[in-house]
Amino acid sequence: MKEVTYGLDIGGTNSVIGIVDRKGHILAEDTVSTRKFPVVEDFVEACFSIMQKLEKSLNNNVKIVGIGIGAPDGNYYNGTIEYAPNLLWEGIIPITNLFKRYFDVPVVLTNDANAAAMGEMIFGGARGMKHFIEYTLGTGLGSGIVINGEILYGHTGFAGEIGHIIMKPGGRDCGCGRQGCLENYGSATGLVRTMHELLGKRREKSKLRKIPCEELDSKKIFDAAKEGDKIALEAFDETAKILALSMANAVAFSSPEAIFVFGGLANAGDLLLKPTRKYLEETLQIIFKGTVKLLASEIPESKGAVMGASALVWNEILNK
Amino acid sequence: MKEVTYGLDIGGTNSVIGIVDRKGHILAEDTVSTRKFPVVEDFVEACFSIMQKLEKSLNNNVKIVGIGIGAPDGNYYNGTIEYAPNLLWEGIIPITNLFKRYFDVPVVLTNDANAAAMGEMIFGGARGMKHFIEYTLGTGLGSGIVINGEILYGHTGFAGEIGHIIMKPGGRDCGCGRQGCLENYGSATGLVRTMHELLGKRREKSKLRKIPCEELDSKKIFDAAKEGDKIALEAFDETAKILALSMANAVAFSSPEAIFVFGGLANAGDLLLKPTRKYLEETLQIIFKGTVKLLASEIPESKGAVMGASALVWNEILNK
Predict the structure, then answer these.
(1) How far apart are CA A14 and CA A71, in angstroms?
(2) What's the topology of domain B2-110+302-318?
(3) Across residues A166-185, what is the average pLDDT?
(4) Interface test with A, best of B156, B185, B284, B286 (most A CBs within 10 A)
(5) Exposure check for chain B: N or C terminus, fewer CB within 10 A?
(6) Res B224 pLDDT > 80
């Protein structure tokens, strides 16, 4: 029987469960609505019945050796989801213990951005690296910081919040209640906000001026930039500049071998990575110049969450 | 025979050598001129003869179990001092190997700020802490970051350069060739530069207006602030604000249990610590509020360098 793990990615709307082998291949996968279960115990039970179906679909020819869970506000130390504003479950949810009622295997939890970093380390471009950082550029900006081959959790379990480093005091309002945090500039949403500002600031023509404010998204800005739209190109350039500054500062802090970029906005590829790389190299302190690679994640975006969650527990099993 | 270590603090002008016991007591100490030895081998030989004298002064009743060295631009991984602009020795200096010619014990090197953090962990207020950061506020601003009970060195050995995190792009010129790094605002020199700016900006009277520009130092600003000088008080407040912002950002990164403040400017005590603590707590992201203590170092400033250097090697010996 093949040893496999479960990777469970808990999202605000849907959650995805996959059976993942040691090489990161997803052998079977299904989705469960998170919103449908206001009581977390019911959600876990629903997951369990889906898991049984998934195992059956593989002729029960697998041995589950662990469960990895990526969830917003997941605390690695306690195995709890704590006050997650995007989930219906209020307060502190002992999610790993709930799964242990059904399975006698290690169950490991962390947040989505740390899971992405772990996926990179176990299955992706960071294999063999001891020091790297992974930026997840989606609606928000998450980060996972790896030090000496381990995810950095810090004293509280919540370390690695690069998206909430204040880049511009008094700047753009942030969902965290403060102002000027990186995620309001460097994420997909940040790009859109930058585009709005530039549409006000510049006089050049732009296709995007015809699009209602609320419908402007990073994909439309990407397409316009590809067609040479000057303001869209400037929006990418501004985004690259602030991402590069935050990366140069992160290098001064932890001196990683590489910084990986993952998630929706990372799909812009060279349009974002090329200028970011240029600004990063320009901005780095002399002692760090040439010491850090800026790389696109080697994990496919659609599989990253489940692979990352699975990698979490593979990492624990392999390090035993 | 009592087991002891050497702590050697290499400075640009003078170096200090001390014999330090397991509790951090300096049993004997002497100074050697660094400037007098343009050839590093001669410096090491001079250190060796001083060391013999120090042992003699203790009736040779000690057993040397290791040598810890704190030096500018010291690389822990390689045991080398690399291109230190403040030392006469050019290029890459294999300082630990040079000492190993004389001693058959572990020799450990790092930079001064990391040594200060190690001193705090082994002998000071950070005993028992797994995650903390130490700011050394002197002419410059150094930092040592402890993660899981270990100094963070990163991929290159040069991690922990919080003083060179860019807080104000395009801001004050920095010795590193860039602009706006924290050390130009948060160090003793930064305080003086802030005072200069405020003397230009404000119209209030101040004793310090009578002092020639070049003679203004942090001690004079401290004394004026103590006497209620409004502009001097504002300079401390500005310094506290930017230190607090950098600390809040560092907490988002590594979530330490405490941040310690050491060095000349830290002697300002509550005048600096009180407002910094207030701004830090205001600035922290909600999930980190109440999780991090801001503390004065428990290591006396005059002994910190030698104790820190010694702590480096005690740490290696104890963790064997």
Answers:
(1) 11
(2) Nucleotidyltransferase; domain 5 (3.30.420)
(3) 97
(4) B156
(5) C
(6) yes
